[in-house]
Amino acid sequence: MSIAKKAGQLGLLAVAMFGFGFALVPLYDVFCDITGLNGKTDNIAAAAAKGVSEHRQITVEFITYQSAGLRGEFTPSVQRLSVHPGEMHRVDFTVTNPGISGQVLRAIPSVSPGRAAAYLRKTECFCFQEQPLDGRATAVMPMTFYVDEALPADIEVFTLSYTLYDISEQVAVQGGNDGGQNG
Hints:
The chain has helices at about 5-35, 170-175; strands spanning about 60-65, 75, 80-85, 90-95, 105-110, 120-125, 130-135, 135-145, 155-165.
């Protein structure tokens, strides 16, 4: 086998690997939607709660993660919050970018136990869209939510976690491949 043919095959393999890596997040989203695994929450805003159920108290824990290579910090304003079903709450998440170049960030939510995800109602969330962040900047990103009164009685505590990804390269690739339709 010639060196040129081998180099061509390796180049094709590299392109295929890049394409597969680029498709992993959407494929994971589809998998979670189909199976209901990992407590993925819908990226749609919920309607306001109908009433507050003061006879019951739920503990919501907040955890943040950053994908590998993401610089800066990503933290919730509180680690744990006691809420009554139907009661609106706002939790702010702070993200910092110590670098000089800007980033475009995407937060992927997860709820544990997964059954609780169906009862978490977000009316506002930074996870609904991409979050641009300038270099050497800090942003406060709000998440407003309530817990549906229909949450099963055996769930007294659940955890809402967010993993933050830098999607700057994917956004740049998508922006450069619009075929001039946006100009």
